[in-house]
Amino acid sequence: MSFSWFITFQDVGNPTYQMPEAEEAHLSSIISTTPGLTKGLIYTPWAVDGLHYNDGPSPHLQLQLYFDDIETLESVVGATGHLQQLAEPTAFPSLAGARVTEQAMIARNYPVKKAPSTEHSFCTYLVHYPGPADDLNQWLRHYIDGHTPIMRRFPGIRGVEVCSRIDWCSSLPWVRVDYMQRNKVVFDDADALKAALNSPVMQEMRADSAKSPPFSGGNAHFPMRTVQISGDVG
Asked: What is the pLDDT of residues 11-31, one digit of tens each?
């Protein structure tokens, strides 16, 4: 288990947005030099046709940064923290019109037979549940005990993770969200994702979802191209 910080950029007025190479390089540099970072992931949209869920445009950019403890996470998003660079007005001018949200969570990682290669991009299916649940403890227990073992049986699965909300501090200027859960399944590429979502395992997932304790807010699913950046673990 580790602590994970999410930041999401979405500009509904610019649906075909792609980050310029210079800004992409600057972003990678900031992430890779973050003190105490154990892993950094950069998510961008991956167009995949024919999926069961269609929850609208994927976020233009999402980051997921991992830390071993909450103190380190809160330090780098503090008033003088390293990640204040992300909010500088001149840092990413192409995202000036984007709505930006942030959230810190506990990340639970569930082992699978083979992790994705980090030598190239891979495909992550990001899901979030805004909530609330009528009984969050009951809902989360059902998800962890019932849903995650099924996800680990997807053909071609390369990663399974469930994140749940915590109380946390930040001094960044963005909207804080309080989703009750985020989770993801990871595959080598979009074809592997499609194959998994059209496999018999998906029928098991839907059957288990039908047994879920009551909750509101629905959920959203986004296929994302993922690049992993290793951080400073010293």
From this structure: 888 888 899 999 999 999 999
> Which residues, including other chains, have CB under 8 Å from residue 210's CB and lie 6 or more apart?
none
Residue at token pair 């999926």: 51
Q: Is 145 exposed, middle or buried (0-12, 13-18, 19+ CB in 10 A)?
A: exposed
Which residue reads 């859960």 in tokens?
181
106's tokens = 């506990």
Whether domain 2-229 has CATH 3.30.70.100: yes
What DSSP assignment string belongs to 75-134? HHTSTT-GGGGGG-TTT-GGGTT-EEEEEEEEEEEE--S-PPPTTS-EEEEEEEE---BS
Indicate the length of the chain as a whole number.
Answer: 234
Residue 233 near residue 36, CB atoms below 8 Å: yes
pLDDT at site 15: 82
Alpha carbon distance 140, 138 (integer Å): 6
Residue 41 β-bridge partners = 64, 228
Q: Is residue 215 within 8 Å of 134, Cβ to Cβ?
A: yes
Residue with tokens 């069961």: 52
Contact 214, 149 (CB under 8 A): no
Enter the pTM of the model.
0.95
